[in-house]
Amino acid sequence: xxxxxxxxxxxxxxxxxxxxxxxxxxxxxxxxxxxxxxxxxxxxxxxxxxxxxxxxxxxxxxxxxxxxxxxxxxxxxxxxxxxxxxxxxxxxxxxxxxxxxxxxxxxxxxxxxxxxxxxxxxxxxxxxxxxxxxxx
Length: 136
Hints:
Structural class: alpha+beta
Number of strands: 4
Distance between the termini: 47 Å
Largest sheet: 4 strands, antiparallel
Low-confidence stretches: 130-136
Shape: globular
């Protein structure tokens, strides 16, 4: 599971929908791999406005990536420093994958297991949609 994906996920438990603590999901026991991909600055510039930077920073810190800037980059690649930030962001978001472990909701504590890079978001029946009995 690429770290970019995690920035768009929240807890699937219905009671967590209104809670701010349900996002971002927090990694535990994560086994991380790096898989190199072609650098695409245009993609990064287009995805930057859609990213929740505080969630990215939280996830990065939890996984031990401490070089992330405290504020969201503008996406410009004019200076060497800006180019380095964008390349580091590319490495974090697109080349870093969590292969095993789990993601945990900060609101309800539900755990989503990750196996072979795929998170299981299927919920047990008691955590999914409410079931109502119809009375005659």
